Amino acid sequence: MPLPAHFPLVSQRLTIRPIVEGDLADLLSINGDPEVTRFLPYPTWQSLDDGQAWLKRMQALAEGGTGQQFVLVMNATSRIVGTLLLFRFEESSARAELGYVLGRVHWGRGLMREAITAFCTYAFSHLALRRLEAEVNPANAASAQVLLDVGFTLEGTLRKRWVAKDGAYDTKFFGLLAQEWPAHEQQHAEGSAERVTMRRGQEVLVDSGAPGTASVIDPDTLRARPVDSSAMAAYAAERERTALDTTDAAEAAAIASNTAMLFALLGELERAQRLVEFALQRQAPDVDARARAITEIRAGQVLQMQGRLSEARVQLQAVVERCRSDAALTTLLDFALQHLGKVHFDAASYAEALACFREALVLRERKGAADLVASTRLALDAVYRRT
Q1: Is residue 167 domain-shared with residue 264, that is, in the same domain?
Q2: How far apart are CA 13 and CA 32, in angstroms?
Q3: Considering the chain, what is the average pLDDT of its residues?
Q4: CA–CA distance from 357 to each of 4, 81, 340, 362 (Å)?
Q5: Do 351 and 332 meet the contact criterion of CB atoms below 8 Å apart?
Q6: Tens of pLDDT, residues 88-145
């Protein structure tokens, strides 16, 4: 019985969809690269005949209900950049394994981390998996780091696990549990909004990695502006169209919620507010509580940027209290406190801002989220300069 499908999955830069035969020409340039296939169990492709044989094996997995092969497509170019495989699916144990390949020209851009993050959310929610696993050749340090960055735990080394190409080799064994995923998922969501990547003079560059989303923050006012307004406007408009055209309510809401903040940065605050309202209408409180809480935080951010500080404070304080009382939302508390602190900062209520930022800092240090810690330290420094 084939695995249930809820595709395509759309992330900031990628679309993940099941493979079709027409994809093989693009995949030949990827799997035909010996550097790409160096740690893979199958030989480097020499021709489309190799691709056809591989596709038949993948189709057999799908027909047997034990796996499914996907391709990764760049949203900006519609070109295939890699693959992702779900396999060894065991329904009785609610577990499966992941395999993945990325074209060499795309290495070092965080694309595979983005793809696996999106896929983990799908696997734990739509497939109701209890556990995901992955094996990595110890010599493939970059692949191991991707799994660690996503949230997988290195559980051990399996000695002489497989025989392929040059003989028997060890593998590092990684695992991720469903109950662990919400905290990791939110850390990724927050990081995309607050990732402090470098200083540029007195400003701080924030870049989620998606095209056109880079912004700079003034460390004195904590106000952000786009690095390239034209690029951000084009990307935001494209994502808005995607949100409005997406039939899956949860996916449409997630895209709209993220895109609202881009329009807010561009100063199109009414457009941002409409997208936030669109998202909230599609996020059921009893089903999408975490996603809805994130959107409510963003609604508070939009109110703040509109200068409606009293309304923003009420909105964000309500989210903070809900995060304190609801165990399912506790990992969002630092996110809510950070933005409530910014509202107090704009209102010149520096004691209240300081209290919010200090609590957020403690929570983020416990998470070990270096980028988010840097974001909160930046906010604290701004308060200290005013008091």
Answers
A1: no
A2: 24
A3: 86
A4: 43, 40, 9, 9
A5: no
A6: 999 889 999 999 999 998 887 778 988 998 899 888 878 889 999 999 998 888 898 8
Task: Tell me the backbone φ, ψ of residue 346, rounded to 5 degrees.
Answer: -65, -30
Could you tell me if residue 326 is inside a domain? yes
Same domain, residue pair 245 and 116? no
Interval 145-185: pLDDT, tens? 889 888 899 999 999 888 877 788 889 999 999 888 876 66
CA 32/CA 30 separation, integer angstroms? 5
pLDDT over 70 percentage in the chain:
88
Q: What is the CATH number of the domain that holds 238?
A: 1.25.40.10
Per-residue pLDDT tens over the stretch 366-378: 876 666 788 889 8
> Average of pLDDT values for 70-74?
93
Per residue in 189-245, pLDDT tens?
555 544 444 443 444 555 444 555 677 788 888 888 888 888 889 888 988 998 898
The reply to whether 65 and 175 lie within a common domain is yes
Three-class SS of residue 18?
strand
- Whether residue 44 lies inside any domain: the answer is yes
74: nearest Cα among 8, 16, 121: 16
Residues 30 and 135 in one domain: yes
Are 256 and 115 members of one domain? no
Same domain, 144 and 211: no
Q: Which of 11, 193, 6, 191 is nearest to 118 (CA)?
A: 11
Structural domain including 358 reads: 195-386
From 129, 155, 181, the end of a domain falls on 181
- Cα–Cα distances (Å) from 10 to 72, 118, 176, 189, 284, in that order, read 10, 8, 22, 14, 20
**H helix or E strand, kind and range, residue 273:** helix 269-282
Residues 96, 244: one domain?
no
Same domain, 224 and 360: yes
